[in-house]
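In practice, a research group might receive sequence data for several interacting partners and want a quick structural hypothesis before committing to experiments. The following worked case mirrors that situation: the sequences arrive first, and a predicted assembly follows.
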Amino acid sequence: MTYEAVIGIETHVELLTRSKMFCGCPTDFGAEPNTNVCPVCLGLPGALPVPNEQAIEWTMSLGLALECVIAPHSVFHRKNYFYADLPKNYQISQFDLPLCTGGHLDVDAGDGPRRVGITRVHLEEDTGKSTHLGGSGRIHDASGALIDFNRSGIPLMEVVTDPDMRTPEEARAYAQELRAIVLALGISDARLEEGSLRFDANVSLRPAGTDTLGTKVEVKNMNSLRSVQRALAFEIERQARVLDSGQPVAQETRHWDEAAGRTESGRSKEESSDYRYFTEPDLVPLVVAPGLLDRLHAGIPELPAARRARYVAVGLEEAAARTLVAGGLAELFDDAVAVGASPRAAANWLTGEITGHLNRTGIEPEALSIDGARLAELLAMVDAAEISATAAKDVLAGVLAGEGSPREVAAGRDLLQISDAGALSAAVDDVLTAHPDEAARIRGGEGRLVGFLVGKVMKATSGKADPKAVDALIRDRTGS
Amino acid sequence: MDPADLSIAEAGTRLRAGDLRSVDLLTAVRRRASMTEAILHAYLTIDYDGAMAAAEAADAALTRGEDWGPLHGIPIALKDNLVTRGLETTCSSRILSGWIPPYSATVVERLRRGGAVVVGKTNLDEFAMGSSTENSAYGPTRNPWDPDRVPGGSSGGSAASVAVGSAFAALGSDTGGSIRQPAALCGVVGMKPTYGLVSRYGLIAFASSLDQIGPITRTVADAVTVFEAIAGHDPSDATSYRGAYPDPRADLDLGVAGLRIGVVRELSHDGIEPGVAAAFQATLDALAADGAAISELSLPSTEYALSAYYLIAPAECSANLARFDGVRYGLRLPGESVEQMMSASRRDGFGPEVTRRILLGTYALSAGYYDAFYGQAQKVRTLVIEDFKRAYAEVDVLVIPTSPTTAFAVGAKTADPLSMYLSDVCTIPSNLSGDPAISVPVGLDEAGLPVGFQVLAPALGEAMMFRVAAAVERLAGLDARPAMATSEGAA
Amino acid sequence: MPVEIDIAKVARLARIGLTSGELDHYAEQLQVILEHAARVQALPTEGVVPTAHPLPMTNAVRPDEVEPTLDREEVLAAAPEREGPYFRVPPYLEE
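A structural hypothesis for the assembly, expressed as tokens:
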């Protein structure tokens, strides 16, 4: 039986505001436990929430970037459940009137474009952090827990997609693109390993060609883009095996175990939660003021999709554009082109040698010792034949190793080519004089002997001569 | 006159004239408390050391020529659901026994900045849920007019202390009548502001969309003074009103000539005790004689207000009280798991009325029942608001008896929750609408128990409300004080 | 008209560990109160917008600025159980 996978993703984004969602406590990481707290985020009796205007605007900006409808009237709700690190035992969130609805994000995993519908983007508050004592650090065998409320109340944006993805690759591409947009907007540092960006996926299978939805399983704990892809690939295969054996898929939450390479069943809940949502009476509705959306629109920088389109328009291949944008090399590219580098040449070096270097060393693009100006200089030197194309690779290696600018490295490593006709004349004349027979035969029409003489000039100049210039000179001298 | 029986206005005059000091006022209050507390139990916590320090500071400032406002040096009591830093705050519940808050409510800070001397924290029905102060985990407060009777609730301690003179004024909170009803039963003035005019930051929440803090005083003029000291926008409360509103004092002495006064038909006849009805009618007659035009209006949705309230308030309180779980503060019972710990602590910490309302509210919000109960109640609320709006197009104020009965006997209504809830039928509608209302004592019934007359005004209509209340007070000319209000024999 | 109440479920949702005797007692009382409260269903409310707030205010927000925090010792002094700088609780059953 062939199955089609139906995948939706919920993403939580921690916003980089200075203060928390509903109070003025600082949001900095690494503070001593329980020092970034106040009556509001501790849930003390009598405390009241007041929403962070920046968090609201950033959420609307992301909604605009995702082509959503921004709700003219939006409200907060209480989501009621008991949990020790949720101080009020309700979370202030949004229910049926979220800030943004009905958008989309186009992704391409290599199989062609997929439009992923964005159901909603809403705003809520994070909980405190529990550390489980003893045992493995997991809940199951703990002897107790310690709670730190520093993260209680941090603004969290939640982005929910329609179940539009069909493959793990598409899911990863979506996750990557959403992350790139969030980073471009500057609203989060979006680090999966640190939890400032969290992906949960819902995946179900159905027989290929049908359109009723199967039982969906929630998958959590995917802490890298690679995990998203691997976890979904595993889960799809697992569900297929279950269905093939004639069993139904259990509706449950499963956790991805990166080390073991599989999803595990989570603790099943006794009864599904009844969150008893009701409008938050301590807050008043949010209404979009005239001019706000225009101002937010104007503040949105060039987004990844637009950037890729711009690169294709100046002549790059789709794949190259994608690599530049996804690899964080777009700024470098733009800078190089701005000072005269040819787009295609710059892209070749960036997606080739430089990306290879990044992969080998694992450093971030910001840490590279080459900037746009230096890349443009390298390319200009190759164009002007100051260095050969082969030598250019060595020069680049030297620049990346921190030896200096391309010119400095070429000089330092003695890679500068001699291509000036005047400088080469003497060498060429010497070789012609030393090989009169070959010279005569070339004059007689044996053009293929030019290469032999070029080789002699190269040897005489210890390889520094520009072979093309030598070739041209020889032909010129021999009238061929 | 014993200083403890002065009004704030009179005390303020004498403080500035130099013939009384704040310390003298506090000493008088202390003497009165020592004579009455054994029977009355109005206070849960009295902080004489802190109060004395504040009184001395107030006196020193006055001597230096500083004047911090009309409450400078005046001893005030605070209902124990107002958070006070460093001073135990319990909400009359076991679940907060011994809790010392690390911050103070905005209204408390405003009073302190104005030089008020905080005497202590007064008794209430647990978490402000009740109409008699019998639901306190620390024992009931008694009515100063007859100690076998209740002072009303939930702000029973605040009303009793003002009635008896162990405070010059007190702050209470009103969600369904909890300032006005005890004020009526204790023969003092109690006022609930327009929702949003007084910050709720630091008021331990019962029902967030209904709760308001307000003054309990011996005169209408004093109520204006305390209201002015606590009202005004607070950025820490997102439901705090940001706009301008008329000066509440501006029209105080204008009288009622030419004003249109509407009696709410549905709440002023059925179920009203004869003594209350008689005092109510006498007041209407006096207002008419003084030049007001009295009419009767029908606000049909107010018959459903009680039912709507008993869905909305418990629903909001079920969420507001979820934070009492033994994790960060308050009572904690042992448990093998955190879930068990929470369950046991909450069972032990909450009294029966609070438990009842949490269960009721949880039910009203739960899946499958939301639309029929909570959802429907919020629609009824809209209808009540519309009825009031229509009424205020025809009259300047509405009037109702504050409570259908005078003070009832301790234990008389505790067996049947519903009968207790019915005490609030005259006060609940203005909590649903968010409009201001005030209770003014107008007389004593045949048993010598006080009767309260209630004036309701449109939202932000405090100036009109106080104007009519002042006239009612003047016309009633009530001079009586409870027999307990004496310091004779005090040590 | 009797109202259906699964009192045990309600008590679980409310995290109050009542005994079965207590549950019965409250169930009876809730029955009476809810029947009275259910009177709201008698009013025709088609087309009526529910009121969530008595005052028509919007956009009460605050700028993204840091304000003073509480002193940790004062906060932890109220903790029923603390361990160093943390609040301590018994082990969790649920995720």
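Before designing any experiment, note the following. The longest helix of chain A spans residues 225-244. The mean pLDDT of chain A is 92.
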